[in-house]
Write a structure and sequence with these properties.
The chain is mainly α and 151 residues long. Helices cover 74% and strands 0% of the residues. It has six helices and no strands. It has helices at residues 14-51, 56-68, 72-85, 90-103, 106-119, 124-141. Helix 3 runs antiparallel to helix 4 and helix 5 (106-119) packs antiparallel against helix 6.
């Protein structure tokens, strides 16, 4: 019995099609792995907070996780608790400033960035966001405060 091996005919765009499918699969796996690790991290942080409720670091980390998930109310709550536990951590004020910036509360964001800079004058990102929030606050409130371009 003889077997004949016939060459397989390939579709002219087979390589491109397989490449596109591979890219889609990689993208989906990247997205789902990021979501999974974020949820897993928040679960771990909650466990750490329960086991050590006086650790400001755990509250700050969970607040940052919540900020990344756009849970701004939860982020503010956790970061506030981190500040209560350690009022000398510039990262806590900076993080809360970022959340307030995202919520459009530019005045309080500026105050938090100022406090972060008082605690760490070399905090370059705090300078950047303080100026950005100052500009947004000024733009949003200049018409309501009675100021004009000539005053």
């Amino acid at each position: 019995m003889e077997h004949s091996c016939k060459p397989v005919k390939r579709h002219p765009y087979a390589f491109e099609l397989i490449s596109c499918i591979a890219i889609i699969i990689l993208g989906l796996s990247f997205l789902t792995s990021g979501l999974t690790s974020s949820v897993r991290a928040q679960t771990t942080r909650t466990y750490n907070i329960r086991s050590n409720p006086k650790s400001s670091v755990n509250f700050l980390k969970r607040g940052r996780d919540r900020f990344q998930q756009k849970d701004y109310k939860g982020a503010i709550s956790d970061i506030n608790q981190a500040i209560v536990l350690n009022p000398y951590n510039p990262n806590a004020y900076y993080s809360r400033g970022l959340v307030l910036h995202e919520l459009g509360d530019f005045l309080n964001a500026v105050l938090d960035f100022d406090r972060a800079l008082q605690l760490n004058p070399r905090y370059a990102n705090a300078y950047f966001y303080r100026e950005k929030c100052s500009l947004w606050y000024w733009r949003g409130n200049r018409n309501n405060s009675g100021l004009t371009a000539s005053s």
